[in-house]
Design goal:
The chain is built from four helices and 20 strands. The protein is globular, with a radius of gyration of 21 Å. The protein is mostly beta strands. Mean pLDDT is about 85; it is low at about 1-50. The protein has helices at about 5-10, 20, 25-30, 35-40, and strands spanning about 55, 60-70, 85-100, 105-115, 115, 130-140, 145-155, 175-185, 190-205, 215-225, 230-245, 250-265, 270-280, 295-305, 310-320, 325-345, 345-360, 365-380, 385-395, 405-415. The protein has an 18-stranded antiparallel beta barrel.
Length: about 425
């Protein structure tokens, strides 16, 4: 299987996989606001060194292009006014690295795509979609400390990854996360991570403009290796959330809790963390205060490689996050994902997930989402990969006219230059 394929799949805007597995645009940028992502995510396919196909002086570049044809029976996630369409999705992915010195590396990744709706041209992409894995990052080694400065950016329009949004085909938004992180190996047993992130969500259009906000986060993550295969530590972060409009209250989110990372065997790894989360608003919004919400968060996942051709992962998370149609929402997410190499050239990637969400402040909504994605990949040549995906999602909520279901089929072709 082409080692660049996972990055290419994200270019299509998170259409192929369930939200947590695909690192949808919202999860991707909240990786220090939400305990779903502050933990090191276990990878089903740990990638080897990226294979670059171009060299421009000292810069190595990987260039790949793709095209997808999507058949979607409910592009606007509606219960009564369902709209179906065929969507043409070309894409281009660029990944480059410049090894400036032995201790300094500059990386740049950019995923671009476009969506052309054959029947509902009003939903055509406004410009160019930028995938959530687009990033500029500089890594430096200063003594024993690895310092990474990065800027992640995205422009997306598909509302699929946002549980609380329905009855629309468009949720146009820019996202940007700029941050600095320091990793210090104090000795063979003790490691400390410290950093700061500034995140922005800019929503385009009037329908969801109240969701635009920024988040400033500081985080500290010390750990200690109590055994060769067991690491324990503490996650602590504090975030200040500021909305661009006066509808919602600004607020502060604090997370603190222990974690354990255990390599049970060479083929099985377990990660778990949980603790206290406090979401406190300042009472300045026009909807009124929703009060201090003291709660708990949790994240756990187990990755198991049964054979060289089959591995699987089961994950669970529960957290409170800044909202889109409300002040904030509680989200529980459970997911099973597998990667099955049927033959050396034929891959089957099934995903099943369940989400339960409850909003507070604004529209009070409680809902459940069930979804699955069945993906097939066939490596035709070292440069050409064919794909076929079927996705189903069902949403049931207590607010009238927010229930929906969606069937989606995507046929794709990727070419790695």
């Amino acid at each position: 299987m082409n080692s660049n394929l996972p990055g290419l799949l994200v270019v299509f805007g998170g259409l192929l996989l369930a939200p947590a597995l695909a690192r949808g645009q919202d999860d991707y940028f909240r990786d220090l606001e939400s305990p779903r992502e502050i933990a090191p995510v276990v990878q089903l396919n740990p990638e080897q060194d990226t294979k670059y196909n171009l060299a421009v002086g000292p810069v190595r570049v990987n260039l790949a292009a793709g095209v997808g044809v999507e058949f979607n029976d409910n592009v606007n996630l509606s219960d009564h006014d369902r709209q179906s369409d065929i969507i043409f999705r070309p894409s281009l992915d660029v990944d480059s690295v410049w090894q400036i010195t032995d201790m300094n590396t500059l990386r740049f990744s950019l995923g671009m795509s476009y969506a052309k709706y054959l029947q509902h041209s009003e939903y055509d992409t406004r410009g160019v979609l930028l995938s959530p894995n687009s990033e500029l990052a500089l890594t430096m080694l200063v003594g024993q400390v690895d310092i990474t400065m990065r800027d992640r950016f995205s422009y997306q329009e598909d509302p699929y990854a946002i549980p609380t949004v329905s009855n629309t085909a468009e949720f146009r938004r820019y996202e940007n996360l700029a941050g600095i992180q320091a990793d210090w190996d104090m000795n063979p047993l003790v490691h400390v991570t410290l950093g700061y992130n500034h995140y922005n969500l800019w929503v385009i259009g009037n329908e969801f403009e109240e969701a635009s906000h920024s988040i400033d986060t500081v985080f500290l993550r010390p750990s200690y290796k109590i055994a060769p295969t067991v690491t324990v530590g503490v996650d602590a972060s504090a975030s200040y959330i500021q909305y661009d409009t006066s509808l919602f209250d600004n607020g502060t989110s604090v997370l603190v809790g222990p974690y354990v990372d255990w390599s049970i065997t060479d083929s099985t790894r377990f990660y778990a963390e949980g603790g206290y989360q406090d979401f406190l608003d300042d009472g300045g919004g026009s909807i009124g205060s929703v009060n201090d919400d003291n709660s708990w968060y949790a994240k756990a996942e187990i990755d198991n490689r049964l054979t060289d051709s089959f591995n699987e992962r089961l994950s669970f998370s529960r957290t409170i996050e800044a909202g889109y149609t409300s002040q904030y929402y509680e989200l529980l997410h459970v997911e099973y994902a597998a990667d099955w190499k049927l033959t050396p050239d034929f891959i089957f990637d099934p995903v099943l997930f369940y989400e339960h969400y409850q909003t507070s402040g604004g529209v009070d909504e409680t809902g459940d989402r069930f979804g699955t994605d069945l993906g097939l990949r066939y490596t035709l040549t070292p440069s050409v990969t064919l794909g076929a995906d079927y996705r189903f999602i069902l949403n049931n909520a207590n607010v009238p006219d927010t229930d929906y279901y969606q069937n989606l089929v995507l046929l794709s072709l990727f070419y790695n230059f």
